[in-house]
Amino acid sequence: MFTKADIHTNLREMGVKPTDTVIMHTSMKAIGDVEGGAEGFLDAMIDYFAKDGLLIVPTHTWARAFDKNYRGPTMEMDSDYTCIGLIPSIAAVHPRAHRSLHATHSVAAFGKGAEAYIAGEVMIDTFTSERGCYGKLYEMGGKVLLVGVGHNRNTYLHSCEERMDVPNRLSKEPFPTTIRLRSGEIINRPLRGHMAEGCSDVSAHYPKFEPAFRRAGAITDGSIGNAPTQLCDCVTMCHVMQKIHEAHPDELCFDDIPLSPELVELGAAN
Q: What are phi and psi of 13, to 5 degrees?
């Protein structure tokens, strides 16, 4: 069984600093048994960054926006519902969390500056805007921590494509979404969502960029518990995708064909 001390040792060995800004995607099944279960794991992570760093946990509810049979609020601030796993559901209602007011791609932020980090999110008009919580990862030199999951779960890459203005990534028209506050008040917030003609799930193909990320030095490998873990630099990943897109704009990530060696090298070029 892994303890809080074990988790902290894993982070240090990977080069994660307690002062870092980190967004975390996790698989508890991959991590294995942790003292205190999933709650214990999350508390260990929060404590590591609590004093001088910032831990961000996605608490997405986007599945409701695409469910034609669902009639309730897309996101409820007093609910533990998320559509992306156990740790996000715990984080959504954690007493130390500052949760962003985003109808589909909310996050729970913990640590230094958490409240300021999520401020203004209710005004964002796309899923992962460069002006919102995902875009701020680039501005702050943040990191993505993939714990037992791959880049198909790396939501930050959507934000890179929004920053780059890659065509055919967002719905042409906004669709209605709603947020229910703890007071019961409902906020209507139309959003342009991730939709690409010709591809049902763009993120499923993001792993094809991993060799280019690695060649550029964007990834540090390690482990947390039993889970293979990647610590990924946000600025470098975005720059790699930008270089590849500018040189090869038809590389729209609509298939699993690996990037050519030339594109891998191009993405890593200074």
A: -65, -25
Q: In percent, how much of the chain has pLDDT > 90?
A: 87
Number of neighbours of residue 178 by Cβ within 10 angstroms: 17
In whole angstroms, give the CA distance from residue 170 to residue 101: 20
- Please tell me the distance from the alpha carbon of residue 159 to that of residue 147, in angstroms, as a whole number: 20
pTM beyond cutoff 0.90:
yes
**Are the beta carbons of 107 and 136 closer than 8 angstroms?**
no
Structure tokens at 243: 């270089």
Name which of 154, 263, 268 is nearest 202 in CA terms.
154
In whole angstroms, give the CA distance from residue 159 to residue 63: 18
Q: Which of 34, 36, 21, 24 is nearest to 229 (CA)?
A: 24
* Contact (CB, 8 A) for 174 and 190: yes
pLDDT band at 269 (very low <50, low <70, confident <90, very high): confident
Tell me if residue 244 falls in helix, strand or coil: helix
Alpha helices by DSSP H, listed for 93-209, are: 114-118, 133-139, 156-164
